[in-house]
Design goal:
alpha/beta; Rossmann fold; 15 helices; 11 strands; about 400 residues; 3-stranded mixed sheet; 5-stranded parallel sheet
């Protein structure tokens, strides 16, 4: 392998992970991120550059010593701003010791799975970085970093948070996919919750049963399968045989859900076969039509019902939906709100009968945290039951 190219007159910087060209701009950015002012960072980086110009090789430790000497009292006045250039390396022993730069942002993102506020996640990540810099850590293994993260979470936010973080990390080590199913009536906020939870868990595949139904509409004509060519709350109008039945709204909804669930089950099966985590949300994710236990050996499938128990909350959600998609008129949902609420009652009755968790989406942020807590607690319980817990 060829050596990295040197900048004009500048040496290569060597540490335990290899050699990289010295660049003043990188040092300035590093010092800024560690609390130095721009003038201090620029002046220090320029002085270091001038000292090492013309050399072929310089050790990382020597650079750190130069920075300490040049900044002096400025750093002592701000102990949190420990200058260490360049960044800490995180070594992955499972990949032949490959290393990557430590990032507060990446660490904070991983901490979100513990069902904590993003501000708390960043504060913990910042504390960990400060601790590593104060100890002049140059290389840390990924396992050591995760153990440090768990200990810091426990100290700052409590043992339950630390347990949730450990459960999520332990589950990732199993190599199994997570399939999260969010069912609920139209307008309860499933789509937004699914997207936010996916971001925090690092899941890239988020699907809706509306998309499944749309594909089925293209393939199956209205004459062949009329129930999928309408909304969940008025599917009964396409099925004349339901006229006069005790509850045509619920029977029409169930007919539609039964048809769409065929596609939903296929998507779950594909995610399991491809070993890829996924979130699937939609009104057609109905308790009793999807069996989470079917894939228990190969995946962790979690089913939650999302609800909105306050009638007035539907108005604002339908208005927001209409502004995002002009073709979805608010009045159609509001005119059928009674039918939508009857469908919600039916879903909640089924969830209660099958002991499925129900998320009352009164506060979006709290609902996101509630879903994350349930996911990690479920993973922790499964891990303890299978003997994989630490």
């Amino acid at each position: 392998m060829s050596s990295p190219a040197r900048s004009a007159g500048m040496p290569l910087v060597e540490d335990g992970t290899g050699r990289r060209p010295f660049m003043r701009g990188i040092m300035v950015h590093s010092l800024l991120s560690r609390g130095a002012s721009f003038d201090e960072a620029f002046r220090t980086a320029t002085a270091v550059r001038d000292k090492i110009r013309g050399r072929e090789l310089v050790q990382r430790e020597e650079l750190a010593q130069m920075v300490d000497e040049l900044l002096g009292d400025a750093l002592e006045a701000r102990p949190e701003a420990v200058a260490s250039f360049p960044s800490i390396q995180v070594r992955d022993d499972r990949r032949a010791g490959e290393a990557s730069p430590f990032s507060k942002g990446v660490l904070a993102q991983s901490l979100l799975a513990a069902a904590i506020d993003p501000d708390d996640a960043f504060a913990v990540a910042r504390d960990i970085e400060t601790s590593l810099l104060a100890r002049r850590t140059r290389v840390i293994s990924r396992d050591e970093l995760r153990a440090l993260a768990q200990d810091t979470l426990g100290a700052k936010l409590g043992p339950r948070v630390a347990q949730r973080y450990r459960a999520w990390r332990a589950f990732q080590e199993t190599g199994k996919p997570l399939v999260l199913l969010l069912g609920g009536a139209a307008g309860v906020g499933k789509s937004a919750l699914a997207q936010s939870v996916a971001t925090r868990l690092g899941i890239t595949r988020v699907y809706s049963t509306d998309a499944i139904r749309q594909v089925m509409r293209i393939m199956l004509s209205k004459e062949l399968m009329p129930e999928i060519h309408s909304s969940s709350y008025d599917a009964h109008l396409t099925l004349p045989e339901l006229h006069g039945s005790p509850d045509p709204v619920i029977e029409g909804f169930r007919a539609q859900a039964t048809a769409v669930t065929v596609g939903a089950r296929a998507m779950i099966q594909r995610a399991v076969e491809e070993n890829t985590s996924m979130i699937l949300e939609g009104v057609s994710i109905l308790p009793g039509l999807v069996d989470p236990a079917r894939h228990a050996a190969d995946a962790h499938v979690i089913f939650l019902a999302v609800s909105t128990l306050e009638r007035d909350a539907f108005h604002s959600r339908f208005a927001a939906r209409a502004s995002e998609a002009k073709q979805r008129a608010t009045h159609r949902y509001l005119e059928n709100l009674d039918a939508i609420l009857r469908i919600q009652d039916h879903i909640l009755e089924l969830a209660e009968a099958q002991d499925l968790p129900i998320v009352d989406n009164r506060s979006f942020d709290e609902s996101v945290l509630s879903i994350l807590r349930h996911v990690t607690e479920s993973l922790r319980t499964q891990g303890e039951g299978s003997g994989h817990a630490e």
